[in-house]
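Lab notebook, entry 261. We have the chain sequence and a SMILES string for zinc ion, and the next step in the workflow is to get a structural model of the bound complex before anyone spends time on docking refinements. Request logged below.

Task: model protein plus zinc ion, output structure tokens.
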Amino acid sequence: MSKENVAASEEEQSYLQESFISIVAEVKHNIRDTNFACIIPGFLQKKLAVELGKYLLCENRIGGDSCESCTSWVGESHPDFIVIGSPDKAPGIKECMSLWEEISLSPVVSNRRVAFLLGCDKLSLPAANSLLKLTEETPGEGVVALLMEEEKILPTLRSRLHIFRFKSPLPKAFENIPKSKEDFLKWLKSASKMENNEILLVLSGWVSALMGNGEFRKAANLEAVRVLVEKYNVPKEMLEDLLYAELWEGYSLEFLSDVLW
Ligand SMILES: [Zn+2]
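Result returned:
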């Protein structure tokens, strides 16, 4: 792997980390005793389950403190924490049907039992149907959470769950296109210290922000600049000129697409 690739993946890692922290905070903020679903990449599902399990089982609703429940965690296991399925393989109908009983058992150390189901975008129809009653009237103080990579969920099941979505790994700051020439010049100053990879990420953020605003032509032009930077080692001064021309002089960069494609 080249040095640049390593740098890019490290950056991606930190954005993933930020997005992970924000979905955890969002769930904690909105969930009291309701069942919920999270749309989140497969490789983060177990991690999310453990993080939220700690919070939901904590006597003080903090997680990671010194209450009896928090001190009963051994790695990723806890006597009142149930995880079934995996990101690649949803729980089968038998596992789903036995959940009712599992959650109804008296909690061992916490004041409730919680169940996380992984890979729920791959649930079979009978398995999904078998969860209807459980999600409608969960026994005791139990909480049921369905984690899935894609938002594929029976409408009847969806209506019983609060849904949280993992945000795109690009941080918000990268979607802020400089509003004035002054801001742009400020950005250029900071960009002079950036690696090309970072600049590419910023440009991706701007492109998606422009698309979101319906400014498709501008988005396409900026995308052309981004591809140019990605394909060729564009000197920073040239990149600055290109961006400046596109953003502030309304100069059409459509000719770029002829060069690129
Ligand atoms: Zn605790």
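Notes for the group: The longest helix spans residues 3-30. Worth checking against the assay data. The pocket of zinc ion is lined by residues 58-60, 62, 65, 67, 69-70 (CB under 6 Å).
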